[in-house]
Amino acid sequence: MNPSVDDRLNSVLRALQNVVLPALPPQASLAQEQVMLAMGHIQIIQAQLDATPTFEAEELADLIDMSHQILAIDSSSTSFQTQLASLKDAMEAREGHVRDRAETIRSAIDVLLQAAHSDTPYHQAIRDVILASGRARTEKDRQWFSAMGFDAAFTGA
Fold this sequence. Notes:
Layout: H1 5-23, H2 29-48, H3 52-72, H4 81-92, H5 98-116, H6 120-145
Helix pairs in contact: 1-2, 3-4, 3-5, 3-6, 4-5
């Protein structure tokens, strides 16, 4: 029987804590710090592991919603219909892992933004949608990491 993901992560943690860290010389403070940082990240991954699929699905849903808003902007007079079609295709794709689908949408938005740069009013309209969506997503991301204490200013929602 194969070990679980949690068992494998615990094995890495034990190796870092009981073998690697003690083997580092006292003057290797940066290396010690980096090992402890890696250990902390592994513990965070363990803490978030079960909730990650839901978090990633919500992130994808937010990107799809943002794409709908971008596609709703009047683009009839623009010269980047190919990039808009690529975004629509990426948004409507149902195949593949959630994380890969989200990255495909992000990439399509980036390509559209670059193409739309020469059309100032349209570019500003896209930017406004992205910034508004980004603010909402940032709050969700801050909540996701709030238990880790990375963001002392976050008071939670």
